[in-house]
Amino acid sequence: MKEQLQERKELLQIREVTKIFGGGTVNEKTALNSVNLTLQEGDFVTVIGNNGAGKSTLLNCIAGVYGIDKGSIILDGKDITKLPEHKRAHWMGRVFQDPLKGTAFDMTIEENLAIAFYKNKSRGLSPGITPKDRALFREKLSLLGMGLEDKMTQKVKLLSGGQRQALTLFMAAITEPRLLLLDEHTAALDPAAASKVLELTDRFAENPRLCTLMITHNMKDALKHGSRTILMKDGQIVMDISGQEREQMTVEKLIEKFSIDNDRMLL
Amino acid sequence: MIMTFAAFLGSLELGMIYAVLALGVFLSFRTLNMPDLTVDGSIVTGMAISAVICSGGGNPFLALLGAALGGAAAGLVTGLLHTKLKIQAILAGILVMLAAYSVNLRIMGKTPNIPLTKSQTVYKIADEILPPKYAGIVLGVIILAVIIALLYMFLETRLGFVFRATGDNEDMVKACGVSCDNMKLLGLALSNGLVGLAGGMLAQNQAFADINSGTGMMVIGLASVILGEVIFGTKTLLRRLVAASLGAVLYRILLAQALYVGMESTDMKLVSAIIVVIALTLGLLGEKSSKLTKFSAKFLKGRVQK
Q1: CA dihedral B130, B134, B138, B139 (to 10 degrees)
Q2: How far apart are CA B15 and CA B251, in angstroms?
Q3: Which site from A81, B54, B121, B269 is most exposed, i.e. has the minimal number of CB atoms within 10 Å?
Q4: What CATH number is attached to the domain comprising A38?
Q5: B212 within 8 A of B108, measured Cβ to Cβ
Q6: What is the pLDDT of residues A165-221, one digit of tens each?
Q7: A·B CB contacts under 8 A
Q8: Cα distance from B153 to chain A (closest Cα, Å)?
Q9: Would B27 be classed as within a structural domain?
């Protein structure tokens, strides 16, 4: 098993990445402090940590929302450190915490899907959506088991938060990206919707070419889903577990680790 | 007291022109979700270019094309100020509006007014072919129909889809691999291109161009868009485009009627502003009144505890 892991290709390398907000002012804050992280194809990594630990900043730096102050980010052998957000998007799918952020609310489900579907194709003056696309979307949406395939011409603003997140996840995965970035994508959902969306996440993450990074505040989810868990604190990765070590980890032990860290902060 | 039939036809004719303006404002205000004040400048740019070409003996249809291009150029400048120099959208529009005043004066050869009474215009050409009473309206309807059709077709393309999504959700557009900046540039150029065209038509219709006629045009466009939405609905994309156009026509008719019952023409801008305020608050009033009814229903049932 372990040998198999080592044979897999390295997909994402984050080298010595530092991100400072408000540099040179009294509010200066080092959000990421020389972070190193290497992800292999097929990895499903859950990211935990306190508020302000740098989890979201890490994801946003990978996605290109923020430029970084030091270090480099290599994706599939290509240095993407200087690429703008929309260009990196070709290899990445993203789902945000806010269910409103992932879709165009005043457009229909099928129009939203079409926008995501043509991500890596030219955006010319050919029809925005064809009957063939519709049939494909309908077929794929029915696999989600949420009944969205019967609402394809409905505007997204009429959907529930859970339906929207499922749709956003589907849109993020439809173009088979190399990297799936999930920033607390179930935090705003009720428990039933959250577990449904997590179930879908597991399904999409099975793709062996895909690498998934999921931030969560739910430690049970962090251990239950994925194959590797990292804990962030003060802009650094302080724990990185996988395999047997991770299997033996429990929520209680994790909380202990959290509280020890917190106690240290008090002293 | 209702206005005469001739006055009604006149406001229909003007309405067709203002409908083009309304479609331009629809693109920036609704599709891009950006209040764009460039309009007050770019409409005069359209007028100026159109008047200069016509009075110089040029083809009046080419003059309209020039007007559209001039408006688009103004929109592009606003877009560049906003996206590349990161100036707030509304301020970028105001700056270009201000700068356009000087540019427009230069286009007009430093005269504040160009008469077209002796020049050929598209409306005079139409008058020769069709019965003069309806010629202007027919011409307006044809131009408007072509624009709505083209706009609708564009908004239904792959590019049109992302363009529409830009006003809804920039994060989503970026996550789908498209530069929002490019969409805004495109949108502002397109929007002000339509505004410039409306200006060009207006100059030829009135047979003069005036440097000061841009004031409040953005508000008039906005009033038309909102009036159209309130009365004709927003259910489908095509309906929204038609609604904005009909809103403009309706707005002209309302204004003409108000003048007919004795309102001073100098008060028209005040009325325009008031119409926009009322139209914008209609939605709010609807929300509040529904909350109020819910509350009173609860109260009547004795569920409110205090």
Answers
A1: 70
A2: 8
A3: B269
A4: 3.40.50.300
A5: no
A6: 999 999 998 888 999 999 999 988 898 889 999 999 999 998 888 999 999 988 888
A7: 86
A8: 8
A9: yes
